[in-house]
Write a structure and sequence with these properties.
Number of strands: 4
Radius of gyration: 17 Å
Shape: globular
Number of domains: 1
Number of helices: 4
Mean pLDDT: 76
Distance between the termini: 31 Å
Strand content: 15-25%
Oligomer: single chain
Strand order of the largest sheet: 1-2-3-4
Structural class: alpha+beta
Largest sheet: 4 strands, antiparallel
């Protein structure tokens, strides 16, 4: 019975594309920086994005005075983003920029994303940070599926 469960789990993981190594290029540090810093400069000062990349809208969610906007940074010719850009804003506040790397990105980039969730305020709870991190990681797994 245990072997059957393991086989079913393996089929489920491989069949749905939730495992690493799907042949899709991982987020690079340069791309991560472009999502978290470069895109902000692009919006605020009109600095051009690096050649070979484009930003496309993915979706947004607004509730009360808070808003989360998701955009994808795409390499030229790719159909899936190499990094997600999440903009979080609150009424009368400057937006915060977060980069969500691909599943196969170096763990150091995932650590940077997790650390960025701490923000600059003292009132964020660790549990909510973890949930946001987990949602981001799972979301990237779903987007990168073939």
């Amino acid at each position: 019975m245990k072997n059957i469960r393991l086989i079913l789990l393996a089929v489920l993981l491989f069949g749905t594309g939730l495992v690493k190594g799907q042949g899709f290029p991982a987020t690079t540090e340069e791309e991560y920086n472009m999502a978290t810093v470069g895109y902000k400069l692009f919006l605020q000062m009109g600095v051009a994005l690096k050649n070979g990349y484009a930003v496309k809208d993915i979706g947004e969610y607004e509730y009360g005075d808070r808003k989360a906007t998701f955009k994808g940074l795409y390499r030229t010719g790719d159909t899936k983003p190499c990094v997600l850009i999440m903009l979080y804003s609150k009424l009368r506040g400057a937006p915060e920029y977060y980069g969500i790397p691909t599943v196969d990105a170096p763990e150091a980039l995932w650590d940077r994303y997790r650390m960025s969730l701490a923000g600059e305020t003292d009132n964020k709870q660790e549990q909510l940070q973890f949930f946001s991190f987990a949602i981001g990681k799972v979301m990237m797994q779903q987007i990168i599926k073939p």
